[in-house]
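A.,

Following up on our hallway conversation. Structure tokens first:
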């Protein structure tokens, strides 16, 4: 978040944060921390509008990468969804991300509560037979 308190329509407010007013900037970096591309949050994109803002952000950031099979993309639960993983796989990217329970495309997995009741280290896994996407809980 870049601090800013003046007037501007793209300014964001996040309650209970050290920097409450300012601009969010999305970035894609290398594993060494070198910046490849960044842009301010709020840029509208018409391509892949059905995927949601998080997935659109990822697609916009990876658009500069040539030779996608050379890259591994990692992101958190804000961006991850089954449909985004399918799009990235179709483009040739290797991707890994944590996912929210409501974005698993109705995958038949045990509930987190039932996993918590089992022995430590227990997990559940599901695979898509039409692609190489796997969901682990």
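Then the amino acids I'd put at each of the 137 positions:
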């Amino acid at each position: 978040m870049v601090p800013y308190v003046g007037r501007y329509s793209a300014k964001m407010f996040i309650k209970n944060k050290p920097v409450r007013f300012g601009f969010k900037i999305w970035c894609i970096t290398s594993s060494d921390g070198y910046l490849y591309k960044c842009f301010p949050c709020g840029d509208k994109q018409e391509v892949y509008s059905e995927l949601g803002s998080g997935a659109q952000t990822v697609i916009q950031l990876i658009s500069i990468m040539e030779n996608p099979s050379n890259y591994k993309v990692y992101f958190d639960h804000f961006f991850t969804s089954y449909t985004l993983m399918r799009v990235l796989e179709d483009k040739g990217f290797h991707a890994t991300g944590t996912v929210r329970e409501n974005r698993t495309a109705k995958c038949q997995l045990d509930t987190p509560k039932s996993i918590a009741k089992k022995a430590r280290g227990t997990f559940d896994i599901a695979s898509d037979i039409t692609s190489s996407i796997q969901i682990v809980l």
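Residues 65-137 form one domain. Curious whether your intuition agrees with the design.

B.
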